[in-house]
Structures are given as structure tokens and as C-alpha cells.
Write a structure and sequence with these properties.
Shape: elongated
Radius of gyration: 23 Å
CATH class of the largest domain: Mainly Beta
Number of strands: 24
Length: about 350
């Protein structure tokens, strides 16, 4: 089973490693969450870590899990995490065997550390470790070799060659073109999904029509109700008279930082006052039916000044998707708390 880790504990890059001779062994280094790797084949944003596996996202597509920063597998594929972790620290000649599976389909991977080499790419010159992964499918006639040049300076592969030995498969070679170094494990700015993105949840599908400041706007859902996710995660009826007040109150939670808290009051047209508190509790790698994503866990406590209502809602907000992938309501006093949900799937516009 997978072992899930909180964001970026191991994500500090080795300073000054570029172009320099490598040591005799190499500890695991990964890019910080939010780092964007641009290759000549695709663009990957680093989302989180899972032991020594690196999880990336690309647009609203399902996450990929990179084994030894070399071989990506779908997030729905299980793998032998302890065996993968055992490849580190890297040393010339070191090997590891890893099993992966999804249902009845199984694959055997042999990982080999071949040596060290300095590689010149469009993104610069890097001192690298050469990692080779031979993959064999147990359920069909397929065998391929992935040869990767892993650069500790960025914690990722800067060049990959793919050779199919038995069977057929799309070519998966690439070379890095550009690196955008970021670290959203410490702080993250608001980023909304592209207009037209559909989030399918356990309580229905939400189509985002647009983004206004830090608010997500949905119009004409299945119930013909318009909704604004104020601050990106708390839903209000778009005709609510207190909507503009709520927008001003929720906005200061951005950029998100663990421990950050915002307090404000909302006074309704009938004179009732509601106390609101938003707190960024922690970061968490969360699995939902749509996949596993790095999230910020945000608590929203809402209390009526007259004591008639007191509730707490938890939101797991994904920076990669710009949307809360889970909501959990905890009502202490009162009724009509929002329904709990989890994200089932994402459809790109």
C-alpha cells in the first residue's frame, strides 16, 4: 500500500550542484511542490511526495507518480514503496526490484544505478546520475527500458530515453527545456481552474464558469442555482445580499500559509450577526476517488452571535486544481450545514 507523506519534507534541492562532480553516493532529493518542469514532450508541476516517489500533475489531468524520478505510473497503480525507497542513497551498481499492480495487471521493474555523467540541455548543464529501469509486464508480451539522467540540483530527470524491447508502446523520451523553481509548501497564491472545468463530486457536478479575484463562479447547475465559491472554497448563493461582504472577509486568507487565521463578521439584512474564522490548519496529501493531491486543510468556523448556530467546516483545497477536493461539515448547534463531498473526477474544458 502507498505511504502518504505531508508536503515537501524532503524537497530541498542541493545548492550549487549544477555542473559539479557528484559524490560517491546520493541521498534522495526532490523538487519543491509547485516547481514546474518543462520538457520537449510535456509540462509537469510537482504536487507532492510519496516516500521517494514524486507526484506530479499536468493541467487537470490525473496525477502521475514518478518512480526514481524516471518512470511515471498512473496514480491508480499500486507499488511496492519500501523496495523503491531502498534504491536510495544512489551508488554506482546499486539495484532494486519493484512490483507494481492495478487489479489483475502486474509489472516487474528492475532499477539499476549505472553511473554518473554531466549532461548539457536547453535548461543548462547538470551533473547527473544515470538510472535505468527495465519494466516487464506479467500479463502480456511487453518489455521496455527507461534510461534517465537524474540531476540532484533539481531533484528530477533532465533527460530520458525509452526503448521498447518486446511489444509496442508510445515513445516516452524527453529532454528538459526549462525549470520554474517554486515552493508552495510554505505559501501559495490563489489560482483558480480554467473556465469550463467540471468537477464531479459525490453530491453532483460543478462547472466553473469563471474566476473573479479569489472567487469561483458557477452558473446554472442542475438545480438552476447560481453559486459563488467565496475565497475559492466556501459556497454562497450568488443572489445572497451578503455576498459582497463575504468576499471582502474571505479574501485575506490568501496567500495560504500554515497557521494563518482570518476573523471577520457578517451582518445579514435582518440584523443578525455571524462571526467567521478561517484557519489554515496544515498541508496533507489526500486520496479521493479522483486521485491523490497535495492540499491545504482550511477550517471555517461560523457562529451566530445569538447562539443559535455554531458549525465548523473543513476544506481540503488543492493548489493543482484550484478547487477543494473534499468538504466535511461538523455542526455543533443548529441545522442546514453544507453536505459533505469528495471529488470523483475532473473534466477539462
Amino acid at each position: 500500500m502507498h505511504r502518504l507523506f505531508i508536503l515537501a519534507v524532503l524537497a530541498a534541492a542541493v545548492p550549487g550542484a549544477q555542473g559539479r562532480a557528484l559524490a560517491q553516493s546520493q541521498a534522495f532529493v526532490a523538487p519543491a511542490p509547485g516547481t514546474v518542469i518543462v520538457t520537449d514532450a510535456a509540462t509537469y508541476e510537482i504536487d507532492s511526495l510519496e516516500g521517494t516517489a514524486i507526484r506530479s500533475v499536468s493541467g487537470v489531468s490525473a496525477p502521475l507518480v514518478w518512480m526514481a524520478a524516471c518512470r511515471p505510473i498512473a496514480g491508480t497503480v499500486e507499488f511496492d514503496a519500501p523496495e523503491l525507497d531502498a534504491l536510495w542513497p544512489l551508488r554506482p551498481g546499486k539495484k532494486a526490484g519493484v512490483q507494481t499492480w492495478r487489479g489483475a495487471s502486474r509489472w516487474a521493474l528492475e532499477l539499476r544505478v549505472q553511473g554518473r555523467e554531466t549532461v548539457a540541455t536547453a535548461a543548462g548543464s547538470f551533473a547527473t546520475w544515470i538510472i535505468e529501469i527495465e519494466e516487464t509486464a506479467a500479463s502480456n508480451d511487453y518489455k521496455a527500458v527507461f534510461r534517465c539522467w537524474y540531476a540532484p540540483d533539481i531533484g528530477f530527470t533532465v533527460r530520458r530515453e525509452h526503448t521498447v524491447l518486446v511489444g509496442s508502446a508510445p515513445r516516452q523520451s524527453f529532454e528538459i527545456q526549462r525549470i520554474e523553481r517554486r515552493d508552495r509548501s510554505r505559501s501559495t497564491e490563489f489560482r483558480g481552474p480554467a473556465p469550463g472545468t467540471v468537477f464531479e463530486t459525490t453530491i453532483g457536478a460543478f462547472r466553473i464558469d469563471g474566476v473573479e479575484d479569489t472567487n469561483l463562479v458557477r452558473r446554472a447547475d442542475a438545480a438552476q442555482a447560481n453559486t459563488t465559491w467565496v475565497g475559492g472554497f466556501v459556497g454562497y448563493n450568488s443572489n445572497d445580499a451578503i455576498l459582497e461582504t463575504a468576499k471582502r472577509g474571505f479574501a485575506p486568507i490568501w496567500p495560504l500559509q500554515t497557521g494563518k487565521s482570518v476573523r471577520f463578521d457578517i451582518q445579514r439584512t435582518d440584523g443578525a450577526t455571524w462571526h467567521n474564522t478561517l484557519t489554515v490548519e496544515r498541508t496533507e496529501l489526500l486520496k479521493v476517488p479522483a486521485g491523490a493531491y497535495a492540499t491545504f486543510v482550511i477550517t471555517h468556523r461560523e457562529r451566530a452571535a445569538n447562539g443559535s448556530y455554531d458549525a465548523e467546516y473543513l476544506y481540503w483545497w488543492s493548489p493543482a486544481l484550484g478547487f477543494p477536493i473534499k468538504r466535511e461539515s461538523r455542526t455543533a448547534i443548529g441545522v442546514n450545514a453544507p453536505a459533505n463531498y469528495e471529488l470523483r473526477a475532473v473534466r477539462a474544458p
